Amino acid sequence: MRVESFANDDSTTADIITCLEKCGCCPRCIFRFLGEKSASRFKCYQETLKETLNDMKKRSSAEPDTSDNIDVDMSPSNDQPCPACLGILQQYLDKPFLTKIKDYVTKAEYEFKSFLCSLTVPVCVLIRERAVLVHLRDKFKSVYESVTEADIARVKDVWKWTAGPLLGDSLLVPFDQKSNFDIALMFNYPRTFKECEMFLDYQPDVFKRRKFKRGQGELFNRANVGKALKEMSDQRLRRAFQIPPTIPKVICECDDIRCTREPLYIAGRYNKYNRFLSQTPWFVDGKRKSESSVEEKICDHLKKHFNHSDSKFSASGREDVDVLMLGTGRPFVVELLDPHKVTFSKEAVKNIQKEINAASSEVQVRHLQIVTKEATNNLKEGEMEKTKTYSALCWSAAVLPQEKLEEISSMTNVVLHQKTPIRVLHRRPLATRERTVYTMSAERIDDHHFKLNLETQAGTYIKEFVHGDFGRTTPNMSTLTGVECDIFQLDVLKKHFNRDRQPEKVKENTPTENISITYRKHHHHLQKTSATLTENITVTYRKHHRHLQKTHLQKTSASLTENITITYRKHQQHLQKTSATLTENITVTYRKHHHHLQKTSLSLTENIILNITDK
What we know:
Shape: flat
Strand content: 15-25%
Distance between the termini: 142 Å
Helix content: 40-55%
């Protein structure tokens, strides 16, 4: 197999090999800096790579007596770390370390059909690779003048090319870079901070020491060090760093091995039959307000089957604690983070559903299934296009006549303007939301109680629609009936989705039926187009109306501000004049009083002198 090389001739390639061997580079790093990017080349054992390098030098040796071409194996020993990869491509590709990885994965007890590997390499490797390149530019300018770090195979890639297939043979599953199961290796080098410290003087604005504690590794990362190296000239690097890089006194260590897999998604629908059960755990100031929750009653059972590290529960909306979720139930999805068990048949999932339902009568689950991540997007898509059916037990301060109940039942498409309810204002922004009540039906229970069934747009606050929330929801049942109303109980009967509609059976149509269907479709299209145009005109009008209102308010505000400013200035001038007058009066009075005191004092002094003279 021919070796890829930046050099055009075998003689120069041999000289480059010798130069890199003198620097102490390992065989795999020598091939990296030669320009080799073939994964199959790096899969060879280190001894085989050494033999290949020696053969390359022998074939190109035109003058066997020259010192540079003598066949001497100057590559570092196994216990001498490579200055370019810090030993990652040496002992961490040997069988003992790969066996250690295999044992760890086996002990973790994950289910997986393929795997990938991810490496966290010490950031100082970037500096050392650049230092080797600078050294090669000094020795072989014509070859390496235009070569950059991007042209060199990365340490982590070479490790994966070599270790991936070997681990695959050991774990009996294929190595796949697109796998959802990841074996992560974290390498640490004790002198990383010391070797990167030069950047504190080079780019102090980027690398601010005061924000980080020494030795934590947070200050220097692959992104900022890579950017700094790209902007740093070879000449500056020579002044700041050893060229070629020194052979490390200690090898970098693999601090941690971790296995993780992508989340698994479980979806279904739940019914809630308890008016004291919240959807999610309910805490106020660190104190629990409810014994359990819908989330816990579902997720606690999933934990023992999927053995995941954590879970995230999401539902299509939420009901209040005192509201029942009836009918076909509310759609939900649980994201299982880092699950160990992932292979479940449909029958096994059904058994988990039965287990959840048997454990509690307060929460019942249906249609439980494993879904893709893409399918979970349906949970939030078209949120405002969904509709909900409710049943509310209501109270009225006065008896509602049957005619009024029938009038309420005949109302359709009632548009509500709902300010954020007072009860949720502490956690939601203040806004006025427009929602629609599509249909209503009111049924008398007794003189002061009636049952109200509603089909509304998703996101409608039903409780506030009934009692009005101190006039924050308009219209409301109190304004529609002319009688004060309140709500005792609320149940969600159904949450409607487009996908809930069952497809009609396909049958052969007669020509007349086809014409009729075509006409209806065309008519329906015209109706939709008309509705869209009307809606656009309405939206444009509202925007324009709001703009005019805003402009009017701005003008009014400006006018008021101007009037207030003028009034303030006049008042200030008046105060200044009054103050000046008062000051002047006080000054005149003071002077008069002072003059009077002086005269009195002189008179007293004169009398005293006369008395003394007389005596």
